[in-house]
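Retro notes, structure queue

What went well: the backlog is down to a handful. What didn't: a couple of records were mislabeled last round, so from now on we paste the full input next to the output in the thread. Example, using Rhodanese from Pantoea eucrina:
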Amino acid sequence: MSAVLHYPAARAEESYAYLQQKLSYYTDAWDLAEDLARGEAAIVVFDARSPEHYAAGHICGAHSFPHRTISAHSTAALDRSKVYITYCDGIGCNGSTKAALKLAALGFQVKELIGGLDFWKRDGHPLTWGTDAGEWPQHGAAAGCGC
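Corresponding output:
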């Protein structure tokens, strides 16, 4: 018997609903880079790591917002019409999940960046250093998976 088909595939309608829902929770480095290169105003990127890790290298345009500091008070001035993208080091770190969870609990729309900074760098997207968010380079998005 087929190892793949040992568990039958879901019906097309079930797969469609599941996959559509899954994409509402996550984004990947390529899609985020495309939006940042275009200056998409509806999203804000938060680096959920410590300020020291942020300063050592972060996504261009991302704001430092360590997950441990997220509260009703620290988010009071955030625009609730935006979608907040959270990231941390990568798949071995759950800081982005903790940040997204806290933001969602406070009523914000959130998505996590799949693979975090690790996948971002792997795909060759630009970084910046220091305590400022920085700006997206004028040359646009770097080559990546091209999905």
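Agreed that this is the format going forward. Reviewer comment attached to the example: The beta strands are 26-27, 43-47, 58-59, 63-64, 83-87, 109-113, 127-128.
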